[in-house]
Every structure is written in structure tokens, then in C-alpha cells.
Amino acid sequence: MPGHAGRKDAFPPSFQGIIDFDLTEISGLDDLHWPSGPIKAGQELMARAFGASSSYFLVNGASSGIHSFFLGLGQNAKIMVSRNAHSSFFAGMVFSGANPVYIPCQVNDDGLALAVTEEKITTLLEKHADVDAVALVSPSYYGTTCHIADIAALLKNRKIPLMVDEAHGGHFYFHPEYPRTALSGGADVVINGLHKTLPVLTQGACLHIGESCPSPDRFVRACSLLTTTSPSYLIMASIDLARDWMECHGQEALERALGLSRYYRNKINSIRGIRCLSQELMVTGVEAIDPLKILISVQGLAEDGFAVSKRLRDDWNIEVEWKSQDIILAMMSIFHDHEDWERLYQAIYRISRHIGCKSPAARTATPQLPAPQVQMSPREAYFAAKTAVPLKDSVGKISGEMVVPYPPGIPCLLPGEIVSPEIYIYMVELINTGSHVQGLDPDLDKIRIIDQT
Q1: Is 67 exposed, middle or buried, given 0-12, 13-18 or 19+ CB atoms closer than 10 A?
Q2: pTM score, two decimals?
């Protein structure tokens, strides 16, 4: 990220004088909260391009769209939520007082949470027939998409609205060989973090309403309630320009990126100790994979993913999107050209030659994220009294903190959940492998737990 890859040629020449466009709601520039002019026209063009009933500019990232969905459902709603959700889902539940029912994720052998299935949702609906909505993530952080059409059909039969956090899938709408979009699958509310994959300024996103969304005004009103009254015209202009550019040139750019992805996946796979994950990601529940999310296993190398990513950054000026002990994620943009892909290949090739390989017996086990044990709603836990204790003394107590490895920003522990022995071991593993963990104290040895009487 961002989708424009730092390239000035990602924007039209008229956009180079950025400061000239940092405007507010002066005459002729419309009002985001009550659009009737150019903003209204831009949002209508956005809806047409994405196949939505209506679309709305978001100037505070995809997170604000997710918050709007939860708040739009009303107080204390019961919501089925995929456990690989971004931390912004938690904020939305705090705002609204929602009570989550978590959907277990399909996990591959590398421990990556990739999708949820229609079958698991069906099973949960048998126990929780009173759920008010379902909220999923597709594509996952790793680029895998769910069978949204099957899930949407299941829920429409029960008149349960479906929200899809499609933050990383804004480019899917402009090329038929990329994964199927959530809107075309029948989702009711879809959020795109456009800045992640398109030539849009950071924080630029959009909220889409599907053709059959029940009571859509509640989500639009919530969106206005949460949105600044001083929206960035730079961000809105970049969204509108990017939509126009993608309609004119997006398919060609995505076709070129698809060809580069196929070619360099094969080249990277030829490097000793390295492989690009593909079929390893096609677990039950996964429908497709974003070709621009390049997950590279380094399990065969003599150094782990943290060390390899440091070499890429220090020696090659390549910043990977995410790294773990066994895998690094290169998030490619439609504006990365042949030279960029070649440099990534050359860097990995030379690092492999320099550090060498290890025997298969030296492979380390990938820690698995334990299932949550929810004791309190996120809102109750957020406002409860808390005390900081040593991490080792928190086992068996109720967490007052959201513990998030970042990236990808997917919580492993939320306020109101029990710190089980398994989750304690998982957190320690994260710390020991050098992951950036939010939610603990700066020394990573204390956590706030909820006071219990």
C-alpha cells in the first residue's frame, strides 16, 4: 500500500498541484452530508462502476464504513462475525453495543485464516436463529475470497443482512479474471478501502449498498453521523479520479498486472528454499485468490521471514506488507511495472543464494489462533474497570485489552474474552518471534484485565 505505489504518474497532471485542491464546502463544491451537485454525481458514477444500488465516499478509511454498518443495526444487536475481522469491527461493536457470535475460520497448514463457509454459518444459525446480521471479511488479508453468493443466498432466505469488508478488493470490479466481487454475489453492504489497491489517497474508501439491502437508510444515516463535517476534498477528488481512470484504463492495467503475477510467481518458485503459495490457500470455503497478493514461503531458507524481510528492506529498499516466521507477503499494485517485479525476484534470489537453505526437519510449527471464550460484550468490556497485571498472571482472567498483531490488524484477543492458557502461549509466541503487537504495555509484559468482584 498505497495503490498508487508512490508513482506521480498514477495521477493525472492536473492533480499534481495538490495544495490547490485542499478545499472545503465553498460555493459550487457541494456538501458530503447533503450532496446535490458534484459529490452526488461522483457517488452516482461510483455506484454505476461498482454495480451498487448507491455508493458513498468515505474519507476516514474503510473502518468508518464498518463502524456505520454496526451502528446502523441499532443498539445491542446480535451479529455473527468472522473471527479474522479487522480491529475496526471491535470499535463498531463498542459503538453499537453489539453482541458477537464468532464464526470459526478455515485455516490452512500455515496457520492462515482464509475464509468462512456457508456450512459453519448454517450450523451457527441453528443455535442463534435470532441474529440480526452477518459481517464477513472477503478477501482476507491474504487475498482469499469466500463463496459470498452461497452465503448471501442462505441469509436472504432468512432476511438477515450481510455486510462484507472487501477493503482489499476494490480492483476486482474492473477485470473479469480477478475474484468475484461481493456486490455481484449479493451482499447487502460492502466496504472497499480503495486506497489499498487503487490510485487513491490514503483514507479514501467507499460504502456500497446492494440492490436488495433491507432498510439501507439506517446505514447511510450512521455513516453521516460518524463522518467529519470537514471532509478532505483531496481524498474525495482522488476517489472520483481513480474511478474514472479505472473505468478507462483499469482492465488494461489489471491484465498487465495479471501477466506479471503469473510470470514472476513461476520465476520465484524456481528459487531454492522458496515457494509462492497458491494451491496451499485453496482450503474448503475459499473461492478464489487475488493474484496481486504474493504470499512467499521462506520455510526452506536458513533464516526466517522476519530476517528475510529485514534484508529486503535494508539491502533492497523493498518493504513487504506483512511477515511471519515462515511467510512474507508482497502486496503488488497495478502501478508496479516489470522492473519492480524483477527487482523483487532478484532480491529474493540473491538473498536465497547468500543465506542458503535448511533441511526440512528444521521447520518450526506455526502457532494456531485459539478459539475465543467470550464473557462480556465488547461495549461492556470497554467501559469496565481494569487493572494492569503481568502477562503471565493474566491466564484465566477476562481481558480488558485488544491484543492485535499489526499488520494485519486482526485481533487475537478482544476485551471481554478469557485469557486462556492457549491464547497466552499464542501471545508469547508472537512476542518471541518479533511481531509488532498492539494492546500490551510498551515492554510487552503487562496487560489490562477486567476487575472482577
Answers
A1: buried
A2: 0.90
